[in-house]
Amino acid sequence: MSNSRCLILSFLFITITFCVADDDNLQDFCPAAVKGSNDRHAPIFFNGLPCQNPANVTASDFKTMKLRQVGDTDNFFMSSTNIITAEAFPGLNTLGLALGRTDIDVDGIVSPHSHPRAAEILFVSKGVVTVGFIDTSNQVFKKMLKEGDVFIVPKGMLHFCYNTGFEFATIISVLNSQNPGVIDVTGTVLGSGSDAAAHVKERLAFLSQKEVNHPPSQATDSILHSEL
Questions:
Q1: What is the arrangement of strands in the sheet containing 140-145, beginning at the earlier edge strand?
Q2: What CDD domains does the entry give (predicted)?
Q3: Does 214 count as an annotated binding residue?
Q4: pTM for the structure as a whole
Q5: Fewest CB within 10 angstroms: 23, 47, 53, 105, which?
Q6: Nearest 5°: phi and psi at 138?
Q7: Is 41 annotated as a binding residue?
């Protein structure tokens, strides 16, 4: 009886510990509005979005047509990415998910970037693309994907994509965070414009699998800094 009681208490302790574990952040930071500060009387900020009254929820809240919309690729990188979160698609709220659509014109690229709060599953719905990511030891993992193929980018990894086919390409993605965030390395390091786009496009096109065995700094540097 004593052993059974200990087992039950252990199970309850583990269950309670699991239940009170903190959720992942949905924003970069959320300092507490401590007692006595001016923020105590300001509007409340949630780590996420408040729920609708269940009596007002309809089927329309669980449907979106935003993935139908072709992105504008008339820019230096010849690509467009649209991330859809619960703000635009209410049914996603509290599910820990976001959706995305990426359109890439012929010879276009999606510049190196990361999602600090999410892993990403990419599904190629049209065209041929090459997708890759760089891990924390600066190893490069990349693959050519055709229509119907899927590629996974682990959480927070710097990743990139470019059109290696002869037609317009479209990727549909799912991210496992309600607010995945985006850090655009190219814009931060090289700025925007045709020169930055040309530099990144050139480096990605010549990034070979041999660079996996290079010293740690060289994989990232080959994309952003090194000369041919």
A1: 140-145, 129-134, 158-163, 109-114, 183-184
A2: cupin_OxOx (cd02241)
A3: no
A4: 0.74
A5: 53
A6: 65, 30
A7: no
Structure token pair of residue 5: 């009681």
Residue 197 — pLDDT band, cuts 50, 70, 90? low
CB 94: neighbour CB atoms within 10 A? 12
Q: What pLDDT is stored for residue 212 in this prediction?
A: 39
Any known ligand binding at 167? no
CA 75/CA 44 separation, integer angstroms:
38
- Among residues of the chain, what percentage have pLDDT more than 90? 49
From CA 222, how far away is CA 13, in angstroms rounded?
Answer: 50
Gap between the Cα atoms of 127 and 104, Å rounded: 9
CB count, 10 Å around CB of 166? 10
For residues 106 and 163, the answer to whether their CB atoms sit within 8 Å is yes
How many angstroms separate the Cα of 146 from the Cα of each of 86, 128, 150, 182, 220?
A: 29, 5, 9, 25, 25
Structural element, H or E, at residue 16: helix 2-19
C-beta separation of 92 from 180 below 8 A:
no
150 in Cβ contact with 189 (< 8 Å): no
